[in-house]
Amino acid sequence: MNKRADFGSDLEQAAFWMPFTANRQFKKAPRLLARAEGMYYWTPEGRQVLDGTAGLWCVNAGHCRPKIVEAVKRQVATMDFAPTFQMGHPIAFEFAERLARIAPEGFSRVFFTNSGSESVDSALKIALAYHRARGEAQRFRLIGRERGYHGVNFGGMAVGGLQANKKMFGPGVAGVDHIRHTHDLARNAFSRGQPAHGAEYAEELERLCALHDPSTIAAVIVEPVAGSAGVLVPPKGYLERLREICTRHGILLIFDEVITGFGRLGHPFASRRFGVVPDLFTTAKGITNGTVPMGAVFVKDSLYEAFMQGPDGIELFHGYTYSGHPLACAAGIGTLETYEDEGLLTRAQSLEKYWEDAAHSLKGTQHVIDIRNCGLVVAIELEPRPGAPGRRAYEAFVKAFEAGVLIRVTADIIALSPPLIVEKPQIDRLFQSLREVLQEVA
Ligand SMILES: Cc1ncc(COP(=O)(O)O)c(C=O)c1O
Predict the structure, then answer these.
(1) Is 81 exposed, middle or buried (0-12, 13-18, 19+ CB in 10 A)?
(2) 116 lines ligand 1 (CB under 6 A)
(3) Cα torsion at 166, 172, 175, 179 (round to 10°)?
(4) How far is the CA of 147 from the centre of ligand 1 (A)?
């Protein structure tokens, strides 16, 4: 294609190989977005679409917010790029400082990346290097969880627990194992908030400790609330139990807060909501409101200090050309200011009950076998159509888009996570549209 694509008409030969997309299917019947503001997108034809997913779990302050737009414009005209290897620029230091201020106590160090996947791989590498720096190089194992999603790079793919994301890509990283997931429909269907049953699934970690010897395990990584694999809320007591086991065996606990960070659960970070503090945590997405790609790993001070005890010279041979990119830092500062001005990092608390009631009002709608929620996130799980898993939810997604509502689906699970500026009438509209869509889907 050497002429500009005529969007909306013929994309069948388009050059863009789209990620996590059925390209042939999509290009025959594209869904395009051309503009965004606040809670809404608009299609190229000018049709308004209510954003029920904060883009892709990232636009927590809503779209095209003025402070963020202005900050990026100013920065791109002032200094487009500067390196952070053996060099620095003030805005990267300033942004890290501001992030540390909203982090749990004792997390005053921030390592910048460009995405959630890079944050995860960075965190895993920091964990391994930390043990080695302290003379425990035998701790090389990394433990993830079934149905975990930690991005698509080799480390995150390995500790992730989604078969479809792994099966095409060879044996991956050595020394990785998984504990079981916490999904338990039989006991926990239609739970509101944290389910009552399943804390004991954390004991799986003890099983792996017994199997591998805990002194070989470097880190355990979990999402506090698993997002991409269908919103799995941790059973009461589960995260506490994981924390205890890790502490007892000297294993680092990594929370992947790429989705749960920046207000999604009514607190700046999930660790505060659940009262369980990890040793490192990964972020991305909401860190810049999705405006400029960025991620960050937050590291406990004691870990950082361990690196600073070694011989003079580079303490960690790791980093990206764009770690601390000036535009991303500018977007991040504009984002934090917007969050602060509007109380968005805690706003979900005041909406959670309304959101939960609206979501659970879909109980009894045809196909719905579970509804689960936490903060401003909900999953509506559908009974798969016999012989065609995922088809029913996908059709619901297409119909919802046609009805002017953006939802997200994974297998037969519909996930909703609107921008944190969402108002009650928009919540009503979201669930009303979904009810109508589910009544129509066969
Ligand atoms: C928990 C979690 N970790 C990592 C990632 C990967 O982030 P990215 O797509 O920015 O690489 C995601 C993306 O959805 C995620 O939800």
Answers:
(1) exposed
(2) yes
(3) -10
(4) 13
Residue 252 bridge partners (DSSP): 219
- For residue 287, what is the DSSP state? G
Closest to 107 in 3D by CA, of 218, 255, 236, 222: 255
DSSP letters, 191-239, are -BSS-SS-GGGGGHHHHHHHHH-GGGEEEEEE-SSB-TTT-BPPPTTHH
96 Cα: distance to centroid of ligand 1 (angstroms): 20
Burial class (CB in 10 A: 0-12, 13-18, 19+), 267: buried
For atom 14 of ligand 1, the residue with the nearest CA is: 228
Helix (H, G, I), strand (E, B) or coil at 173: coil
Numbers of helices and strands, H then E, in the chain: 16, 15
Q: Distances in Å between the alpha carbon of 179 and those of 45, 203, 215, 228?
A: 47, 9, 17, 17
C-beta separation of 75 from 91 below 8 A:
yes
CA 224 – ligand 1 centroid, Å: 13
How far from chain centre, in Å, is Cα 270?
11
Nearest CA to ligand 1 atom 8: 116
Cβ–Cβ under 8 Å, residues 233 and 223: no
- Cβ–Cβ < 8 Å for 374, 188: no
**Predicted local confidence at residue 197, as pLDDT:** 98
Cα–Cα nearest to 279, from 260, 251, 307, 306: 251
Query: Is 121 a pocket residue for ligand 1 (Cβ < 6 Å)?
Result: no
Task: State the 10-residue block means of pLDDT for the chain, 442 residues long.
Answer: 52 94 95 98 98 98 98 98 98 98 98 98 98 97 98 98 96 97 98 98 98 98 96 98 98 98 98 98 98 98 96 96 98 98 98 98 98 98 97 98 97 98 98 98 95
Closest-lying ligand 1 atom to the alpha carbon of residue 227: 16
